[in-house]
Design a protein that fits this description.
Helix 1 links the parallel strand 2 (about 15) and strand 3 (about 40-45). The protein has helices at about 25-35, 55-65, 80-90, 110-120, 125-140, 145-160, 195-200, 220-225, 225-240, 255-260, and strands at about 1-5, 15, 40-45, 70-75, 95-100, 180-185, 210-215. Helix content is about 40%, strand content about 15%. With about 260 residues, the chain is an alpha/beta fold. The longest helix is centred in the middle third of the chain and has 17 residues, at about 145-160. It has 10 helices and 7 strands. The chain folds into 2 domains: about 1-110 and about 175-260, 3-Layer(aba) Sandwich (Rossmann fold), CATH 3.40.50; about 110-160, no CATH class. A 7-stranded mixed beta sheet has the order 1-3-2-4-5-6-7, sandwiched between helices.
Length: about 260
């Protein structure tokens, strides 16, 4: 496994990636954000021979973040966002804010959960299932692009941190987070649909936000990077001092030991 964090100066914000094959889809948004703020890029890559472990990824992320002299804005898409969510729950004093892209109230739901569910239920070759997933993720595409997306999805199955398999699907209870939270999604995402996103409402604190892109499906932050960037930058301005928002009375979140039982 490898980790990397790239920023010319000490970052104010950190993008979390656990899917190297999707890196180019993140770049338009990161480039836009980097023109306004110091944005670091933290990535976690693993080989097919290594077991997938959120606990290991959390430890490596903490090893990096604890070197910062101030709390950081954390951002992530899908499982990268889930990693940020778990980190913010465990180390809220180190997180200035959290932005989740395509992360529903059931945060472990991702494209792989859908893929393995279909692979288990449908009597089809995996290439057919992957073609269906490509259409769900990116919409109707010319055949040569479908082939490219299938290859990208196959790489993601091999190289990224995966919570799911053909025999088991991972899940986490819906919970809030004790730091300022921005949740972004797309109205036409069939992986993390608007119902999953709207279901964050009971867990939102005063000042937290829920924002929808008009389209773009699961990777809306690539197609609508300018709108996402505006929303993120406006959200960051809302919390200029990085103060941790108070946790609502009567609410709770998982302790370290409870996390360990999941991870």
């Amino acid at each position: 496994m490898t980790t990397q964090a790239l920023a010319r100066k000490a970052p104010d914000a950190l993008w979390l990636s656990v899917s190297p094959s999707f890196q180019r889809l993140d770049q338009p948004l990161l480039t836009c954000l980097a023109s306004h703020s110091q944005v670091g890029y933290w990535s976690y890559n693993q080989t097919p021979d290594e077991p997938s472990s959120l606990a290991v990824a959390l430890t490596l992320l903490h090893d990096y973040v604890k070197g910062s002299d101030r709390p950081l804005h954390l951002l992530g898409h899908s499982t990268g966002g889930l990693l940020g969510l778990l980190y913010a729950r465990k180390y809220p004093q180190r997180v200035k804010s959290l932005t989740l892209l395509a992360v529903g109230v059931n945060p472990a739901v991702d494209w792989k959960a859908h893929y393995y569910t279909q692979l288990d239920r449908l009597p089809c070759r995996r290439t057919i299932i992957l073609a269906q997933m490509a259409q769900a993720l990116f919409g109707q595409q010319p055949q040569h692009l479908v082939k490219m997306w299938i290859e990208m999805l196959e790489q993601d199955l091999l190289q990224s941190l995966s919570l799911h398999s053909l025999t088991e699907r991972f899940s986490l209870y819906p919970q809030g987070v004790p730091v300022p939270l921005l949740v972004c999604g797309s109205r036409d995402d069939v992986i993390v649909d608007p119902v999953q996103l709207q279901s964050w409402q009971p867990w939102l604190k005063p000042g937290d936000r829920l924002w929808f892109a008009p389209g773009g499906r699961h990777f809306f932050h690539s197609d609508h990077f300018d709108g996402v960037a505006r929303e993120v930058l406006d959200f960051w301005e809302m919390e200029p001092n990085g103060a941790i928002a108070p946790w609502p009375l009567g609410s709770s979140y998982l302790s370290t030991n409870q996390y360990d039982s999941f991870l």
